[in-house]
Structure formats: C-alpha cells, structure tokens
C-alpha cells in the first residue's frame, strides 16, 4: 500500500503552482520542531523516525493514485507526469529516534528541492506527532514504575494502525511488551496476554475456566482474578495451578489496598513467587501511587496510546531557508502573531556538565562543536538512500537503547511528575 | 494487507484454550457499548461501522501470519489450522453508522461461536473507539458552526491511517470536506486545500507567490494572508486576483477582531464576495465564539482528530450471553467493582414524543416495539455476508445522512456546549 496519498491536498497544489513557474525547483531546507512541550512536561522523546524512513520508501505515486488525481483534477497533467517519477532524492538528517527533545529542537531536517520536500510534510508530521506523543507519555510511566516492567495494551483505544505505532513507540520509551500482534511481527516488540473476563464468563464456573487456561498455557500463565470475587478467585487460581502459578491480574477496584490483600493471600496460600500484575486504567500518576504496593508489573492501555492527555505533539514542518532567483541562500520564517518561526539552517547540540545535560543549544550559521557538547543530528537519508540501520526491528531496538542513554543524561528534575518547565533551556546561538 | 494481526494476543490464547476443550464452540453474544459518555457530553455519534465491515472481509490469516504465529508459539498447531480456515460466519447487527448513542446503548451485537467472535474484539474496538470519538467531537463543532461549512484538516495531528478514518468520521458528522487525499480516494470525501505559509516564503515576494497560485488555480482560489502583515496581504491578494478572489485564509491571531477588520478591508477594496476562512486552532468553543464574526467557513485540525479532549470513546466488547453445556442460553456479566455489566441480549429502541427523542430503552428478553419507538439495531452481517450498502463511499454518505436525521430528533439541550448529563436517559426494561 502506498503512503503517497496520506497527504494533504495543499501539498500537491503548492507543488503544481510552483512547478509551473519553476520556483518549486529551488533548493530548500525544511525543519520539524515543536514550539512548546505539552503544558507542564519536562521533556519529550522523539519517536517515529524508523517508521517514517520505511514509509518514505513506499511514498510512490502509482497508476491508481495518478488516475485518481487526474480524474479529480487536483493538479495539472504536467504535474501528474512529475509525480509518476517521484522519488525523494535529497538528504534528511534528524535527532536519533529515542532522543530527548525540547521546544525548538530541530528534530528533522529535510534538504532538497521545495518540490521534493513539501510533499513529505503531512506524512512526516502524522508519524512524528503521534509516535512522539506516545513515547513521551510512555517515558514518564517508565520512570514512575521505578524499574518494574510495563506492558502496553491500549490497541483498542486508538485507530487500528496507530495501535501498532503506539506499541512500537512505548517499547522505544522503555515498555517491555505489547498486546499487539502486528507490532510483534513488524517491529519485533515482545507480545503478551492470556485471557479476558469473557473467557471466565464463557465457562460454567471460574474454576473450569482457570483449568482450561492452565491446561493450554501451563501453570506459569497469568490468571485474571476479578471477574467475580477476588479472594475466592485467588484461592481457586492457586488450587488449580499450584504454587507455580505465574501471576494473577487485577483489572478493577482500589488497587493499593487490593494488591496488598492479594499479596497476603498468595503468601498465605504458599504461593510467594506468584506475581501480581495490575491493569486498571493506569497512567503515570496512578503508577507512581502504587510505588509502595507489592505490584510486580503494570499493563497500561488508554493513557499511553493517547499520550496521557496530549495525543498530538504539536510539531510543525517549516521552510527555514531556500535559494533565491540568483541561487543565493536566504533564511525565511513566518513573521505573524504567535506563530513566528526562526529562519536559517540549524545545528543543534546538547551541552553537558559532569555527564548531565545543561542546555540545548541551537546554532545558526555554524556547526562548531565545543568540549562536552553532543551534536544531535545524524544523517538518515543521503541522496535519497535511507540508512537502513534505523529501520525495522533492529532500528527499533537501537532507538530503545538510545532513549535510555539520552534520558540517562537528564538531571533528576526531569522525572518529577509535577508540572514544570522544560528540564533544560533551549538557546539559539 | 490483512487486518488479522491488528489483534491483542489474548484473543488468540483464549481461542486456543477454548478450542482445546471445545468450549469455544459455544454460541455466544457479544455487545459493544460504553458505560459513560466523556464528562459533560450530551450524546455521541456512532462511527466506524463501514470501516469495520470492510476490515472484517480482510480479516484472514494468510501464510505469513500463520508462519509468524507458529514461530512465536502463540497458539497450538491445531489452532493454527483453525485460523487458516477462519471466516466469520455469524451475524452482526448494530446501530446505523451516524446514529446518536448514549451510555449503555448496545451499538454492535456479534452473534456466533465464542471462537469466531472473540477474535474480532480488538479490531472492532480500535475502529469504533477512534472513529466515534472523532465523529462525536465533530458533531458538536457542526452545531457550533450554525450552518457554516467546516473542513477537517488535522491529518498531521494523528497517526497517518487514523487521519483517513478521522476525515471520514468528521464527514459523517457533517463536515463538508477534508484535506486528506486518501480519504477522498477511498471514501469519497470531498478534498480541499490550496497553500501553506511555506509557499509564500518560497517566493521572493508575497505578490509573486499569490500570482503563481492564481495562475495555477484561478482567481477563485483561497489565498493565505497571514505570513507577513495581514492588511497588506489582503490588498495584495485583491490586486493580484481581482474582486473575483474566492477567499482569504487566516491561520493566526485574535480571530474575532481580525476577521471583522479583514471583512471591512475586503469590502472597501471592492471584493464583497470574497469569503473569509479561518483555521487557527479551532474547536467547538472557539467556533461558537465566532458566531457573530463574518467568518464564512472553518478549517479544523487537532481538536477534531483528537476528539476534542476525548481521543478514545470508552467502548467495550463484552460477552453478555452464551449457551451452556446443555445448549441452554445463559446471560452473563462481570460482577466486580466499578466495571459490572448487564447480561443478556439487548433490544434497544429510541422512544420519541412529537418527533423528539425522550428515552433510550434497552429491552432485555423482548423485542416488542411500541407506538413511536424507533428500533435501533439493523442487520450488518448475516451468516458471514456483509451488507454492502453500508460499505464504501455510498455507505459513508448514507451514514452522513443518517447522522443528520438522528441528531435532528434530539431536543435542543443536546446542543449546549456546557457540561451536562446525557440528553436523554437510558433505561433497561
């Protein structure tokens, strides 16, 4: 399936008008960045890079797409011919996937003709805005869980393909597994899950349901214990599976007190190694509130796939420089009202002291790197060729490792769940 | 591309355990409903039905999927064989797409064996939860706009395939167009859009950019006038396009006062027929706040594709009845804590008086229809065969018409933007 029509109509009409007089052939630089983080957030996590690179390879106008554009008269016939040959042939650099980003971080830089680059705006933003929203929220949950594992299980609370992207983004941010099978197949994210309430309700008794599950999956499975009465279910679970029962799952109720009761019950039943997993409408705040409770792992649904209150990062894709009629580079930026942008090609570095990030410095007109500054842009696409290290399951794993390293550089105030300013300031230089 | 792995792993492990002892072959009824509307909302709009029916036809486990499941040992070999032959052969009924729904409305009813139905849970919920969130928010915006046209342009603020679904859902809820080309191609939603700030910035002067656009698209195009100085841009726009200029677009600033100034300016320039479209971070509240302003149309992005604060409807897919070991039907429901469900097959009707809805009555154990009651379930799938009237662009248009009729039955209090209770009560009978 081509990704070429996952595009706003105006990208094509701009192309059409700009090709007509040749202006669209001017070399241009576009940057993706956000003017601000969601209210109160300390940092964001870049996600979507690997997906964007794969979609870029599929961004082709085939006969069915061209036919439709022709019939709808979206663009002139000459532009249809241009689109038929379209392959992105420029350069793209960007923050590593998994990198911490801050307001005004130029996290993707697209350099090519205006014509080639402008077509990618909608697709790039759809991917980066959603995936980064999920990864940014997930990263807070990972910190809140203080080392206890998290699984993403929110597929049912977002569009069916966004679900796959969300599973991947949460994994990059440090989640350990997902319920989503397609994310397992496509991106190599470990998958998990055993049974829902429907399974228990299908059987004539809870005991029969537990027996059926243990027979199919062995005693190390996770039994769901809140369909009827929790203490009774815990007893039944241990009776059926024995003390080797892997874990019990609780999906409702007042978790801090419930979890303590269930832990005591499991211990009393001689199942001290049986773990407790909780899955009841969790977010970073309720996870943090369970710090003192004997929870062994968390399953998170709605809140992670919807960015915990911020389902869209507010990233934009802006023209910052282009060649003029004489072939000279000019910096450009929208001047108006609250949406002004800073023109010119950027070179961002992260300044550090004693191993901790102190400042995001966005340099304009220089790419000099001083002392402990870490340059943030890496080449992703060179003359149209995608760097395959960043794609597929391997790229996803690399991004997960990079997120851990990048977050590891942040000062402790980054992990406060209270509202605050970005953890380090961004400065233009 | 198959939709079969857009599924939570536990659907397959439940299937596996239930097939092993035959219990998964019990005839079952599952229902999709929500326990509550988002805080303060008066009603919701069902969307996703047409998309679900099309994905159902693609819900097949091909060799690549079976291979992966086999390698990952997600289920036993016998279950792999069962999946290879899987075609949903049961019945599905539901609310018409575009229908108003309320808490506990059983908006989709799936009847088949447990095995066949349970596999559809994740996919059905992903689609209905997202599409209905968008349609429900969009419907409020349509009311707030009081008859002035709206275009959906939020593709960049949601996952790239969710963007297509959002365009379709907003159209069903009464939006007139979308920026998203794939939604135009696949679902027949009218597409719109002309140019972004980048286009103006690319040219050496704003005047040259406007000239290029008018040459390509004619004077009836929409010129974006807020890249530099708005009054100057409006003058330039009328000078370049003449008084036949179609419209000007404003994407920043304090809209109520700006729009009035621009209107006065256009009139003074002899362009009284040139329309004004605004696109600056709109939602139902800011649209309503522009009621007195001379705005001709609205473009809405982030807020509509993210459900205006509620990006996921909280719909669930619950087993409500099944045959027991003796082949007798039993009603079932989860008993625990705050998530209890009402068992039994439901028959919902909308009671009306003088043409206006007064009550949602969910009947259990009877399908008697009295006087002015409107039955709400229609057959969507019969013995595995999809009713094609509800699919494709035609189904989408039908849903749009049905939404208008269904919303037209609601009392005026439905359209208050203030927080309140569901507009009519739901009662079990």
TrEMBL record, chains A, B:
The protein's matches in Pfam families, at most eight in alphabetical order, are given as: NAPRTase_N
Task: Give the domain of life.
Answer: Bacteria
Q: Name the keywords, alphabetized.
A: Glycosyltransferase, Ligase, Phosphoprotein, Pyridine nucleotide biosynthesis, Transferase
**Domain Nicotinate phosphoribosyltransferase N-terminal intervals:** 5-129
The protein's annotated catalytic reaction(s) are:
5-phospho-alpha-D-ribose 1-diphosphate + nicotinate + ATP + H2O = nicotinate beta-D-ribonucleotide + ADP + phosphate + diphosphate
Its Enzyme Commission number(s) read 6.3.4.21
State the similarity comment: Belongs to the NAPRTase family.
What's the protein here called? Answer: Nicotinate phosphoribosyltransferase
Q: What is the organism of origin for this protein?
A: Frondihabitans cladoniiphilus
């Amino acid at each position: 399936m081509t990704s070429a029509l996952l595009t706003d109509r105006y990208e094509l009409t701009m192309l059409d008008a700009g090709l007509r007089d040749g202006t669209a052939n001017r070399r241009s630089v576009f940057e993706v960045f956000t003017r601000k983080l969601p209210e109160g957030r300390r940092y964001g996590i870049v996600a979507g890079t690997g997906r964007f690179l794969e979609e870029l390879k599929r961004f082709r106008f085939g006969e069915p797409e061209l036919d439709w554009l022709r019939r709808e008269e979206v663009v002139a016939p000459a532009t249809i011919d241009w689109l038929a040959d379209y392959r992105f042939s420029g350069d793209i650099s960007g923050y590593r996937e998994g990198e911490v980003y801050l307001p005004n971080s130029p996290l993707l830089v697209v350099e090519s003709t205006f014509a080639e680059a402008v077509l990618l705006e909608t697709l790039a933003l759809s991917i980066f805005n959603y995936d980064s929203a999920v990864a940014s929220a997930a990263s807070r949950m990972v910190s809140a869980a203080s080392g206890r594992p998290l699984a993403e299980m929110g597929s049912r609370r977002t569009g069916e393909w966004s679900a796959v992207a969300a599973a991947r983004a949460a994994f990059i941010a440090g989640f350990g597994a997902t319920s989503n099978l397609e994310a397992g197949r496509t991106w190599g994210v470990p998958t998990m899950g055993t049974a829902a309430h429907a399974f228990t309700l299908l059987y004539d008794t809870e005991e029969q349901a537990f027996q059926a599950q243990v027979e199919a999956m062995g005693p190390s499975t996770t039994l769901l214990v809140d369909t009827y009465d929790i203490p009774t279910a815990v007893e039944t679970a241990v009776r059926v599976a024995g003390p080797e029962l892997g874990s019990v799952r609780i999906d409702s109720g007042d978790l801090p007190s419930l979890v303590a009761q269930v832990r005591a019950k499991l211990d009393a039943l001689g199942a001290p190694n049986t773990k407790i997993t909780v899955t009841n409408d969790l977010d970073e705040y309720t996870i943090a509130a369970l710090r003192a409770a004997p929870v062994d792992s968390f399953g998170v649904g709605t809140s992670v796939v919807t960015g915990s209150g911020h389902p869209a990062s507010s990233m934009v894709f802006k023209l910052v420089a282009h060649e003029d009629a004489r072939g000279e580079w000019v910096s450009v930026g929208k001047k108006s009202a609250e949406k002004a942008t800073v023109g010119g090609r950027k070179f961002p570095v992260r300044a550090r002291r004693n191993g901790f990030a102190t400042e995001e410095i966005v340099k304009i007109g220089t790419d000099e790197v001083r002392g402990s500054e870490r340059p943030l842009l890496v080449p992703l696409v060179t003359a149209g060729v995608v760097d395959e290290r960043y794609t597929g399951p391997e790229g996803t794993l690399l991004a997960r490792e990079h997120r851990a390293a990048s977050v590891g550089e942040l000062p402790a105030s980054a992990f406060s769940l209270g509202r605050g300013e970005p953890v380090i300031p961004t400065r233009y230089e």
